[in-house]
Amino acid sequence: MKICQVVGIPVRIFTCLHIICFLITGFFIASCATYHRHAEAGYAVASWYGPEFQGKPTSSGEIFDMYVFTCAHREYPFGTELKVTNLSNNKNTRCIVNDRGPFVDGRDLDLSYAAAKAIDLVGPGTCKVKIEYLGRDTSYIKEVKYLSYNGPFTVQAGSFKEMSNAWRLKKALELEYDNVYLTEADINGAKFYHVRIGRFEARGQAYEFAKGLADEGYSVFIVTWDDASKHITEGDAK
């Protein structure tokens, strides 16, 4: 039987090559989808933060430096690079999302002092901006680690010596997640405050949830769930 030719390549071989290319392309699109979910430009109200948070840990775990071009956003994964343009003067800057916030209604983006200064935002305090997604530094993606294999389970997203830092992370996580709580532990004579999320009967369920947090850029551990009587409330913190 004669086989038709397409530019010198048998149709059967051509079809196979086409299928392989389609599968490879689909794989790369799927693998990138998680980190390009905010690719479209948008408009927002920006504010800034600086001295009062200098030297304190951000939600990503990095130490906040007001002189570095970073920002806080409620949804973008940590490591996302944004181009931010002040609509009143058309000045723009680039910054990396490494924190959560703002926590004030009507505001969508908190710029570091350096980023705010670059677009003349420091004086006014707030302004309308255009946000453009530029990509993501995937080194911010973390791996899920285990501190316990005995259930029921919970996911730990942070551990701090200062309770104020733990409460700040709890508040940041509550922008997206429910059942965030704090516990206290003595480790080698030092007191630590753990920020934990949820209760999971099965280890697989805990892992799936933790994996989402790790992909977002949180350093997470799967640990044994704490009895509710050990949870720290706002009253305990005062």
Number of helices: 5
Structural class: alpha+beta
Specify the CATH homologous superfamily of the largest domain: RlpA-like domain
Unreliable sequence segments:
1-36
- Tell me about the largest β-sheet: 6 strands, mixed, barrel
CATH architectural grouping of the largest domain:
Beta Barrel
Level of helix content?
10-25%
Total strands: 13
At CATH level 3, the topology of the largest domain is Barwin-like endoglucanases
Give the N-to-C terminal Cα separation. 86 Å
Average per-residue pLDDT, rounded, comes to 86
Task: Kindly estimate the percentage of residues that lie in beta strands according to DSSP.
Answer: 25-35%
Computed Rg: 23 Å
Domain module count: 2
Neighbour order of strands in the largest sheet: 3-7-4-6-5-8
Shape: elongated
**Helix and strand string, N-terminal first?**
EEHEEEEEHEEEHEEHEH
Overview of this protein structure:
With 238 residues, the chain is α+β, with helices and mostly antiparallel strands. It has 2 domains: 42-139, Barwin-like endoglucanases (Beta Barrel), CATH 2.40.40; 145-237, Sporulation related repeat (Alpha-Beta Plaits), CATH 3.30.70.1070. Helices cover 24% and strands 33% of the residues. The protein has helices at 11-33, 113-118, 163-173, 203-216, 234-237, and strands at 5-6, 9-10, 42-49, 70-73, 80-86, 92-99, 109-112, 127-136, 145-146, 153-160, 180-187, 190-200, 221-224. A hairpin with a 2-residue loop joins β1 and β2 (9-10). The N and C termini lie far apart (86 Å).
